[in-house]
Write a structure and sequence with these properties.
This protein has one domain (about 5-200, about 215-400): Up-down Bundle (Growth Hormone, Chain: A). It is about 80% helix and about 0% strand. It has 20 helices and no strands. The chain is globular and about 50 Å long.
Length: about 400
């Protein structure tokens, strides 16, 4: 059974103004928005570059999803100071984008660079999420995650628009250099403006990350302990699976647009639709609905991520495809209904590890999704593969309906 929040938290609905009043959260929020813009610019530019070079739907999907690979060092989010981790993460992303921009490498080598960077990315995300969970309490934490989702959607849109403009004017390699500059700005902002926190303050409980065996062994041990818990395990799966299926569909958009001979640039319109839908969904679900209502709508919203994608089996044109992808993105607001139960289920001395594991699992499956459905597209076409991804999301919604109770209402 999913644990519930305390009664006072269950009835309190926070506001975005209350969340943004926390200056440290504003810093993480703003740098995250810029970093996602840079990431959207980098991934989209790279995916287009690969498809233009190879004409392969599979390789194009791999280029889109290669940044979503797992890492083994989630426990570092509880073992190292957060400022160094977060700033170091942005610096690493900057170096990777700069390498892709300046060094002309074979496609396989470029994919390898993206994959290596992705190995460590969830560590930095886990540190950031741990700070947000520590600074924001109750429904304020849920709205903080909502704001991060809104930033993600808006930044993806801006990254797509910026990518189209920069690629048209400067070419793909210089567009990657712009991405590197944005990452560098984020790293400097965190290094200069985020207070230096003592490790014991960040962990919350002294000695929570002690133990021998090295970072990898400690991370695997901690991940095993977390996943043995039935509640934590299924809440993680619920947050991993639908985005993985959506990523599988998104990874095929460039190839779908090319195969349907859409006008140049239409792929950017289609890729921008899921983040627009997600932005609207997070605003409406996060701002207008009370916490118990959000939690009851988890399964219906997951179904909404999948059902529109099933419509791609008919291989619709740009207009209908855009509407379907908008609805799909709106359904991703389901995640807001899982934030509070997930946080309540975590042990207080391992939240950084848990958030790192949540990020690494999500990135793993969002990397597997494009690769898997890209392979399927080679046999049944991109429209059929996108529809199959949608059907898998609908099945996930059905699985969540078997939870008893699905998401309990706070007393």
């Amino acid at each position: 059974m999913i644990p519930t929040a305390e009664p006072a938290q269950g009835n309190h609905r926070a506001t975005y103004r209350e969340v943004l009043a926390e200056p440290r959260f504003r810093l993480l929020f703003s740098t995250r928005a810029v970093a996602i813009t840079a990431g959207s610019l980098r991934i989209t530019t790279f995916s287009v570059l690969v498809f233009a070079t190879t004409g392969s739907a599979l390789l194009s999907a791999l280029a889109f999803g290669i940044g979503f690979l797992p890492q083994l060092f989630g426990s570092l989010a509880d073992r190292l100071p957060p400022r160094a981790l977060i700033a170091g993460g942005y610096a690493l992303e900057c170096a990777a984008a700069l390498l892709l921009a300046l060094v002309r490498m074979p496609i396989a080598a470029s994919l390898g660079v993206m994959a290596l960077v992705a190995l460590a990315t969830p560590v930095f995300g886990g540190a950031s999420s741990r700070l947000v969970a520590q600074w924001l309490k109750g429904d304020a934490y849920v709205l903080g995650r909502s704001l991060n989702n809104i930033a993600s959607s808006g930044a993806q849109l801006f990254g797509l628009a910026l990518g189209g403009a920069v690629v048209a004017v400067l070419g793909p390699h210089r567009a990657l250099a712009v991405s590197a500059a944005l990452y560098l700005g984020c790293a400097l902002a965190i290094r200069i403006r985020l207070p230096r926190l003592e490790l014991r303050e960040f962990r919350g409980t002294p000695g929570s990350a002690r133990g021998g065996g090295g970072a990898v062994r400690a991370s695997l041990h901690g991940a095993g302990l977390l996943l043995r818990g039935h509640t934590v395990r299924r809440l993680m799966l619920a947050q991993w699976l639908p985005p993985a299926f959506v990523a599988g569909a998104e990874g095929l958009i460039v190839a779908y647009a090319g195969g349907r001979h859409f006008a140049p640039g239409r792929y950017a319109v289609l890729m921008g639709c899921p983040p627009v839908g997600m932005l609207v969904g997070d605003l409406l679900v996060g701002r207008l609905l009370r916490p118990p209502t959000r939690e009851r709508l988890v399964a219906p919203l997951i179904a909404l991520t999948g059902l529109p994608l099933v419509g791609f089996v008919t291989e619709p044109g740009v207009g209908v495809s855009s509407c379907l992808l908008l609805l799909c993105g709106f359904g991703l607001a389901y995640g807001l209904g899982l934030q509070r139960p997930f946080l309540d289920a975590l042990p207080p001395d391992g939240q950084g590890q848990a958030f790192g594991l949540l990020g690494s699992g999500s990135m793993t499956l969002q990397g597997v999704g494009p690769a898997s459905f890209g392979s399927v597209a080679a046999g049944i076409g991109t429209g059929g593969a996108i529809a199959l991804a949608g059907g898998a999301a609908v099945l996930t919604a059905g699985w969540i309906l078997t939870w008893h109770p699905p998401i309990p209402t706070p007393l």
